[in-house]
Amino acid sequence: MKAVIFDLDGVITDTAEYHYLAWKHTAEQIGIEIDRSFNERLKGINREQSLDKILIHGGAAGKFQEAEKQEIMRRKNQYYQQLIQNLTPHDLLPGISVLFAELKREHISIALASSSRNAPAILQRLGVMDEFQGVVDPAALAHGKPDPEIFLTAAALLGVPPSECAAIEDAEAGIAAIKSAGMFAVGVGDETSLRGADLIVHNTNELTFELLNEGWQRYCCIREGK
Ligand code: G6P
Ligand code: MG
């Protein structure tokens, strides 16, 4: 394992909750109700894909012109940005800063593969920008998760082959993207929504170098057919 690639929302900090609240609020304004179970399907996917899924869910696919959709997304992002403006280093999820330190000690590179265009601002507020040797710009990608492009781009930024990378995700679409990229997939959450992950933890404080490395060794044995 030469690199660990992190998702942001729901892995490094709990902004997945703020995305949910912002979409719930915005969807209500156009007469659509969403709940936490539906929200699982929005995790990891980009803004445009999220709105499309919400419109289909509310039976409103095709109801809005492109300019109206842009306005709905602008409102969601504005509300979301209000929710994240007071983030501080205290908002790092448990265990994450210790894991960054352990990876540094082990000379393992770190990159960010988040679909969020707000990611750089969030890393700044959390005070962890300097931990990353690579941050993928999601606006420069042709395909969103579950396509592997974002994880392959992160590996390329670090100059590490995908077969030497582990990646950590809280979303179904993210785990699928990691597996298609040919990487070791670590899921944060529950088994039902993270099927396909090579290793699952329920909370970020379980994410130690020791656990990742044990999982990595097992994964390599299976991969090599030992
Ligand atoms: C992440 C989150 C999604 C969010 C997406 C786009 O992948 O998991 O819930 O929709 O980023 O975020 P943005 O900040 O660009 O709207
Ligand atoms: Mg996430």
UniProtKB/TrEMBL annotation:
Location in or out of the cell: Cytoplasm
GO annotation, biological process: carbohydrate metabolic process
Enzyme class: isomerase
Residues annotated to bind substrate: 7-9, 23, 42-47, 50, 76, 114-118, 145
Residues at the catalytic site: 7, 9
Protein name as it appears in the record: Beta-phosphoglucomutase
Coiled-coil region(s): none
EC nos: 5.4.2.6
InterPro entries named among the record's database cross-references: B-phosphoglucomutase_hydrolase, Beta-PGM, Beta-PGM-like, HAD-like_sf, HAD-SF_hydro_IA, HAD_sf, PGP-like_dom2
Keywords: Carbohydrate metabolism, Cytoplasm, Isomerase, Magnesium, Metal-binding, Phosphoprotein
Record-listed Mg(2+) binding positions: 7, 9, 169-170
One Pfam family linked to the record: Hydrolase
One function term, GO molecular function aspect: magnesium ion binding
Domain of life: Bacteria
